[in-house]
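Handoff note, outgoing to incoming analyst
You'll be picking up this chain. Sequence as last confirmed:
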Amino acid sequence: MRVNLRGALHNGRIDVYALGPNVSDIVGVATWYPPGQKSFPSEEIREKSGWNTFIKDFEPAHKDWWLNTYSTSSKNISRDALPPDFTLNAWSLQIFGVLKAHQGKGYGRALYELVHNEAKATGSLMVLKAVADVDVNIYTKLGFRVLASCEFGDWRTCHREVYKMRLMVNDKHSRTE
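Most recent structure output, in case you need it:
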């Protein structure tokens, strides 16, 4: 997660929900890439964020899975379901979470609303990928819908355990509809 946060510092947006002024008061975080931006778009940003070191340190089977299964599935689902220029008019969610002890208190919705209001004002899409069913349910309540899905196996179980990735979009206020 640190690598993703560092990457977002370069060309993304990080929103934090905190109950006070200290780092220990942080209860939620969201990282988004605004229209026209994407995660780790250049070798320079991959190097500065620590991505290259992160992926280099994977054990071979995990690295192969990440690069050839997970990343490929993620790219393909976007390529197949979205127009080629979707990043030009879409906020893309990368990380979203609220500490378990603080869930259900509206902090996640408050984090979401920060970008939602901006997307609404500019007529932009909002796009994300979710694997866990609980996440799909949460994002559906926030106005997202499943646009496409794909399945991929888990490297730890030699692909016996299969996950379903859902590409979700909130386009209720998009000017591209």
